[in-house]
Design brief:
By secondary structure, the chain is mainly alpha-helical. It is about 65% helix and about 10% strand. It has 2 domains: about 1-170, Ribonuclease III domain (Ribonuclease iii, N-terminal Endonuclease Domain, Chain A); about 175-249, Double Stranded RNA Binding Domain (2-Layer Sandwich). The chain has helices spanning about 15-25, 35-40, 45-50, 55-75, 80-90, 95-105, 115-120, 120-145, 145-170, 175-185, 225-249, and strands at about 1-5, 110-115, 190-195, 205-210, 215-220. A hairpin with a 6-residue loop joins strand 3 and strand 4.
């Protein structure tokens, strides 16, 4: 990250060569360079240099990223339930995901802060990176419009958004299965522990999930909850297979 000494004296923007380097990293060309400069200016650098911080841009960027991610998920996963889409969106726009996107682009080398050594450690440093990514998205939107911004976000976050769908399933198979079953049959799946074995300190459980007493899947785990989640995961895999078979008929 850049410190305040690397700012041009009495200037409201970073040196042009630094901005051009950042544009190359981002794969975009800003007409209004001052928007990009503002997007990477942390509030800690404002008081000494009469700069505008990126806080307002963060606010706008957060909403824009949410819209683009939601639309992408909606279009590319037409069979996924609303609940799963919501979980995937929450994962894709989380601080962790935005930090990953920022680091892939090398944004941390360009963010302007007053005291890099103290501000960039731990949770605070991650928040600064996530905020900078949001602000850059907002700056691009104001400079180039929604179409260019969508292309940038989808390019920068494609793998992250795809992983978000997988993560939403991994986090709670039972909730996902329940949403699917209720949407199609208006019923709730029932879980039952078939058996358990092992010592009191090392038990293993076998669970099954049923619909109208018909087994949908089986699972094994070191706790009842884990076994039920595994049963739900097996049921979802079977469900997906049946859907593919129906499509091929």
């Amino acid at each position: 990250m850049l410190d305040r000494e690397e700012l041009t004296e009495n200037s409201t923007v970073l040196p042009l060569d630094k901005l051009q380097q950042l544009e190359q990293r981002l794969g975009v060309d800003f007409r209004r360079k001052e928007l990009l400069a503002q997007a990477i200016t942390h509030r800690s650098a404002v008081s000494s240099h009469q700069l505008q911080s990126n806080e307002r841009l963060e606010f706008l960027g957060d909403a824009i990223i949410g819209l683009i991610v939601a639309e992408w998920l909606f279009k590319h996963h037409p069979d996924v339930t609303e609940g799963t889409l919501a979980k995937a969106k929450a994962y894709a726009v989380s601080e962790q995901a935005l930090v990953e996107a920022a680091r892939r682009l090398g944004i941390e080398e360009f963010v302007v802060v007053a005291y890099p050594e103290s501000l960039l450690e731990g949770r605070g440093g991650r928040a600064i990176l996530a905020d900078a990514f949001e602000a850059i998205v907002a700056a691009l939107y104001l400079d180039r419009g929604l179409v260019a911004t969508k292309k940038f976000v989808e390019r920068a976050m494609a793998d992250i958004i795809q992983e978000a769908i997988k993560e939403s399933y991994r986090r709670d198979y039972k909730s996902t299965l329940q949403e699917l079953v209720q949407a199609q049959y208006r019923l709730t799946p029932v879980y039952r522990i078939r058996t358990e074995y092992g010592s009191d300190h090392d038990k293993t459980f076998e669970a099954e999930v049923l619909l109208h007493e018909r087994p949908l899947g089986y699972g094994v785990g070191k706790s009842k909850k884990e076994a039920e989640q595994e049963a739900a995961r097996a049921a979802l895999a079977h469900w997906s297979q049946m859907e593919r078979e129906d499509e091929n008929k």
